[in-house]
Design goal:
Elements (H helix, E strand, L loop, with lengths): L1 H12 L6 H12 L4 H11 L2 H38 L17 H15 L3 E2 L5 E3 H4 L28 E3 L4 H10 L4 E10 L11 E11 L4 H16 L5 E8 L2 E10 L16 E10 L1 H6 L8 E8 H9 L6 H4 L2 H4 L9
Parallel strand pairs: 1-4
Antiparallel strand pairs: 2-3, 4-5, 5-9, 6-7, 7-8, 8-9
This protein binds 3,4-dihydroxyphenylalanine.
3,4-dihydroxyphenylalanine (DAH) binds next to β8 and β9.
Length: 344
Amino acid sequence: MKEKIELLLQEIENLKCNTEKDIEETRVRLLGKKGEVTKLFEEFRTIAPEMKREFGQKLNILKNKAAAKIEELKENAASSGTEQSSSTDTSMPGDPLPLGSRHPVSIARQEIVNIFRKFGYDVAEGPEIEDDHHVFESLNFPPNHPARDMQDTFFISNGHLNPLLLRTHTSCVQVRAMESMPLPIRIICPGRVFRNEAISARAHCIFHQVEGLYIDENVTFADLKQAILLFAREMFGPDTQIRMRPSYFPFTEPSAEVDVSCNICHGKGCNICKGTGWLEILGCGMVDPNVLEASGIDSKKYSGFAFGMGVERIAMLKWQVNDLRHYFENDMRFLSEFSHCVEV
Ligand code: DAH
């Protein structure tokens, strides 16, 4: 009996079972009704009384060790089981990362640029921090001219002869082009502009414009009208009509504002066009001879037209967005509505 106990103790010491099934089988083999430890207890009843004390203690130790070992094996199996389930299964497909999409203002700007590119216009860009000379002076806004009040300007430095400011329109890029590019010039200038305006559904202090400029010999108002008509039809659909209303800009003479026929009610009148059937899209005109001369271009030989449009406005009309602020708030519900838009 002594040997049996020793052998079992050794066996228990070295027990290694991994699965719950193995452990249960071992438990039954040792501690079950017909288990080896149980059998030893039965044998114990038959031994001589003077030996009972010694073997009784040994048997109890054996039984406790067997039970403790089984418990330990169970715990090990349980913890390695959870480790297994939480460890990475490298064969699983990865979590999909949501793909972003282009911002509606970028989509609209790109569409405008692409249309004019097809007409043979090059893209020109200029700095957002500008000087008075390029934003006002050379565009025929003399100092203290009331037309400067049309554009509330953010000044960066005051008190200089030529203060720095955030450009209020992209028309200054046409000045930079006239100063530096060889003639003829046919460019569009997309860019961000800044005005000190209260933010509302219809106005923002930051927005985007696309400026257009064409200078050559014998450029006429008819060319301007045709360019705008073709653009409007590409942008808003082949049935689009345009109308030009006389207007005033210091840098163009004559000047006009252009409306397109409402693409929602097709001219019948709705709440988007406020019942008029027309939507304003841009300002334009023939480049004022003073502006040509200020950039060193001979106004007797050359003439040209210019136009400027707000990208957010075009995008609002195209997609019937009724509040300009949507473009700047980055609300995913709004932005994801444009994820299907593919660039032309
Ligand atoms: N720069 C004008 C604005 O920001 C828009 C504009 C009007 C540009 C007429 C032009 C133009 O080139 O000819 O309001």
